[in-house]
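Hello support,

Our group uses your service weekly, and this is the first time we've seen a run hang past the timeout. The protein is Inner membrane protein YgaP-like transmembrane domain-containing protein. I'm not sure whether the cause is the sequence or the server load. Input pasted verbatim:
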Amino acid sequence: MPDKPLCIKKNVGPIDQSVRLTLGSALVVLPALYHWPPWAIAVLATIGGAQILESIIAY
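Update from on-call engineer: The timeout came from a worker crash unrelated to the input. Re-ran successfully.
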């Protein structure tokens, strides 16, 4: 097994952050606009919120 550090790596840069922010926003807003089932909205909003948080803290 190779000796790799077991730590969180920082995002690549501002492009990666903007992609995560855009994707996260879409996952939160679009399912609600298209009236998807409540369970799908909840799951996708959770994933989208995690992406938005990762874009803000850059990890």
